[in-house]
Amino acid sequence: MVDYFHIPLSEDKQGRWYLELTYAGAALKNNWSLSDVGISFCSTLKCFVKKEDKPTLYVFNAVTQETMAIKENMSILDRKVSDLRMLVTLSCGFPVSVYCLRTPAGLEMYDCNTLKDYQTDIGTTLRLDVWDGWKEFLMGCLLGQKPKVQRYLSKEGPVLKYQKRVALYIAAFHGHTELTEWALKQGAQPHEAVGVHPCRAWCHEALHTDVSNCPIHAAAEAGQLLILKAFVNFSVLCLECKNAAGQSPLAIASKHQHKDCVLYLLSKIWSTVSFLKLSVPMRIYIKIKQWILRAQTRRCHKSQPSRARVSGAKVGDTVMVDGFTKPKMTSKSWYKAEDKSWHTAQSKLPPCKQQPSRKPIGSLPMSQHDTKKQIFTFPSLVDAKNFSEVQSYQQENQKKIAAPARKEKNIKNPYLPQVPLPPVSRVHYAHPQFYCTPPSGDCLLRSLFKSFSEHSGRTPRENAIYCLAVASAFKEKRWLQQLEIARVLAKRSISNLTVKGGPAKCENYPESVL
């Protein structure tokens, strides 16, 4: 088509012009077969010439093990690190106070410096690190798994409150209703700022401005309508809650072009609150409620003059000074963090008390002494060097086989969010139970599944999800037709693997040429 229509295509450092074919609402890939995706004789294909901007920077997320692409103008390299962190927060949904950015050499990047100060160039891959011991907690927040979040909560009071605010923020950004409901019940407020870690509370003057953002702002940025409704029903103060830039949730939703959220917030703001003999506009009602809350706070302080008012950092708290103290944002797992000594102390079992044996040792037969000696004596490993070489060779082969899967995991698949599936299958087998299955049938299927996973880099369930995700892109097709396309893609992926073989052939299946 490029030669027939004389379409000019080009590519440079900033981007490229390319030709895209679409059918039934889905963009066709070069390695797809026409028959596999349901394209028959006299079908109509649409041709587009599109421009793709190359990412200016890449950020590797140490929590999800994925690489995020930052597509901005070249001018971002002249801006401060704080501006880049705002873009990263919009991409991953983490509050700015839970992570830091590092250069490829491992140097921490501070908000007050520019990217040029760290010799950052186009295409540089930065690293996102979080607080030590928080990886599992943040992963549970991203997935919306309440039991996992509860398991990895801190035992310290100030850190626990901070984690609940972080959990509510991430749940609001990603639309996890169950986790949002739990965080609200735990006392986290949707119109309360996330803040910073207690060990950095003393340096509030040098903090990022977005630490004052609230979960309601995260829901408005991501366009999570259900979360917005839950927050407004919880407290109408969310409607007038403003971020560091002075923007309300309505302004934020309008900026990000979330039409449904804008209409809902407008209807709430211009509504009225009815009492017995009076109707008050929502804006006036919010001001009255804010005045009442301020009066109650002052009344509480005056009624308890003996108690000292303690806010912020206190003497004796852990203090973190940038560039001087030992860094605590290195993305250590919960099990390797230093502050888990209490857990190891609780997990240790008391020493076993030796029970006196009924028979004296000398009364045992000679054969029993020999067997005990044989049990506790280990033979010397003569071929240790050869064994280590074989083991390293096997590990290298496994790394080569799993390389395509890791390469595809680095950048998120845009189709996967369109396939609502449970995170874990409820059944143990991916096939129905047959009454006439031979005894060795189950072992055979398990070996086939294992072989498929080793060579393709995906489990059979992940392969089915991938095919459903690809088929769901054909939005102009009916659901049964999408299901048929997914079935053909799954069948072709297995046939290509068995016929052609090799992990390199399975990166972007099906392998037929368009």
Provide tags for this entry.
17 helices; 41% helix; three-stranded antiparallel sheet; alpha+beta; single chain; five-stranded mixed sheet; disordered C terminus; Serine Threonine Protein Phosphatase 5, Tetratricopeptide repeat
Task: Describe this structure as you would to a colleague.
By secondary structure, this protein is an alpha+beta fold. Among the domains are: 2-55, no CATH class; 58-266, Alpha Horseshoe (Serine Threonine Protein Phosphatase 5, Tetratricopeptide repeat), CATH 1.25.40. It is 41% helix and 9% strand. The protein has 17 helices and ten strands. It has a five-stranded mixed sheet, covered by helices on one side. Strands 2-1-3 form a three-stranded antiparallel sheet, with no helix packed on it. A two-stranded antiparallel ribbon has the order 9-10. A hairpin with a 5-residue loop joins β6 and β7 (108-109). α5 (157-174) runs parallel beside α7 (215-222), α7 (215-222) runs parallel beside α9 and α9 runs antiparallel to α10 (259-269). It is globular.
